[in-house]
Design goal:
Blueprint (H helix, E strand, L loop, with lengths): L2 H14 L2 H8 L3 H15 L4 E3 L4 E3 L1 H28 L4 E7 L1 H18 L3 E7 L13 E5 L8 E14 L1 H7 L13 E4 L11 E2 L8 E2 L6 E3 L2 H9 L4 E5 L4 H6 L3 E3 L5 E10 L7 H17 L4
Helix pairs in contact: 1-2, 1-3, 1-4, 2-3, 5-9
Length: 303
C-alpha cells in the first residue's frame, strides 16, 4: 500500500463527504477509494470512519488522522514545489478551476501551446463559478471574476473587462437598435439571474466622459441563471443582452452578435488568478499563470 496515496484518498473522502464524491473528485473508481481507506484502517489498526448506508462520520482516531494527514500532504506539496523550483523544470499534476465561459472561449483553445511547451505538467481543468476551498478541493490555481474575497490567497489580475450590450444581426434588422439605455425599455431584453439570490443582475452604463456608472435595468422578456444559455438565446434573435466582454467574445468575432450602445459601455470586474502562497515559487504554477497572462494579453479584442 502506498500510504501517502491512501492518506490523500482518505482526506478526499472526508472533505467530499462520501466515497463516491471522492472518487469523482480523484478520477478513480469508488471501489478503489473504499479499498484504500480499508487498507489504511488495517495498517493503523483503528477504525477511521463510522459508516452506515445513509451517513458517514469520523471517529476520534479519524479526526486525528485527518488533521495530521492534511498537514503531511501540505508539507509534501511544499517540498515538491521547492524541489521543482530548484530543478527549474515545471512538472507534476496541476489542478485548475475556472468559469465555463473563460475556459471555453479563451483557455481551452490555447491549451495545445501549453501542453507542447510543458509536457511534464499533467493539467486537470475543472469548470465552476462557485466559491471553493482551494486546499480542501486540491486546487492549485483558480480563476474568478470579481475582487478576491480571501486575503490569504495570492491574487494576480489577468484581464480587465467591460459590460457590453449585444443582439443578433437579424434582431437588429427586424427591430432596429436603441440609441440610449433608456430606449432599451422598448426592446425585448434578456436578463441574467444570480443563481443563489434569484435576483436580476442590474444593467450598468457610463456615458462618454462620465465619472461613474449608473444603473438602468430594462424590463425582462426572458431571464436565465446560466450565462451561456442567455447568450445562445440572444444569438437566436430572442433579444438584447448585456454581458461581460469575455462572455460574448466569440459571438462578436463570428458575427452572430453585434455590439450596441457602444458610447455607454462601462467597466466591469477584473478576471483574477488565485493561488496559495505556498505555491508562489512552484514552477508549474508560475508558468501556467504566465501562460494565462500571455493569452489574455495578446488576443483579447472583443469587437
Amino acid at each position: 500500500m502506498d500510504r501517502l496515496a491512501a492518506m490523500q484518498v482518505f482526506c478526499a473522502v472526508v472533505e467530499a463527504g462520501g466515497f463516491s464524491k471522492a472518487a469523482q473528485r480523484l478520477g478513480i473508481s469508488t471501489s478503489s477509494v473504499t479499498n484504500q481507506v480499508a487498507a489504511l484502517e488495517k495498517h493503523f489498526g483503528v477504525r477511521l470512519l463510522q459508516r452506515t448506508t445513509r451517513s458517514m462520520s469520523l471517529t476520534a482516531e479519524g479526526r486525528q488522522c485527518h488533521a495530521q494527514a492534511r498537514q503531511l500532504l501540505a508539507d509534501m506539496a511544499a517540498l515538491e514545489s521547492s524541489l521543482e523550483q530548484a530543478a527549474g523544470k515545471p512538472s507534476g499534476s496541476l489542478r485548475v478551476d475556472m468559469p465555463s465561459s473563460i475556459s471555453r472561449n479563451l483557455v481551452a483553445p490555447a491549451l495545445p501551446r501549453f501542453t507542447a511547451a510543458y509536457p511534464d505538467v499533467a493539467l486537470r481543468l475543472t469548470v465552476s463559478d462557485r466559491l471553493i476551498d482551494m486546499v480542501e478541493e486540491g486546487i492549485d490555481v483558480m480563476l474568478r471574476i470579481g475582487e478576491p474575497q480571501d486575503s490569504s490567497l495570492v491574487a494576480r489580475s489577468l484581464l480587465k473587462m467591460d459590460y457590453l450590450c449585444c443582439a443578433a444581426p437579424a434582431f437588429v434588422a427586424r427591430h432596429g437598435m436603441p440609441r440610449t439605455p433608456q430606449e432599451l425599455d422598448q426592446f425585448a431584453c434578456l436578463h441574467f439571474l444570480y443563481p443563489k439570490a434569484r435576483q436580476v443582475r442590474p444593467w450598468l452604463f457610463q456615458a462618454d466622459g462620465g465619472d461613474a456608472a449608473y444603473v438602468h435595468t430594462p424590463p425582462a422578456a426572458l431571464s436565465f441563471d446560466h450565462i451561456e444559455s442567455m447568450i445562445a438565446a440572444a444569438q437566436a434573435g430572442c433579444g438584447i443582452v448585456q454581458a461581460l466582454s469575455v462572455s460574448v467574445l466569440q459571438p462578436l468575432r463570428e458575427g452572430s452578435l453585434v455590439p450596441l450602445l457602444q458610447p455607454f459601455r462601462t467597466r466591469g470586474p477584473d478576471l483574477w488568478a488565485l493561488f496559495h502562497p505556498r505555491q508562489l515559487r512552484a514552477a508549474k504554477v508560475q508558468v501556467f499563470v504566465e501562460f494565462l497572462a500571455q493569452i489574455f494579453g495578446e488576443g483579447f479584442n472583443e469587437n
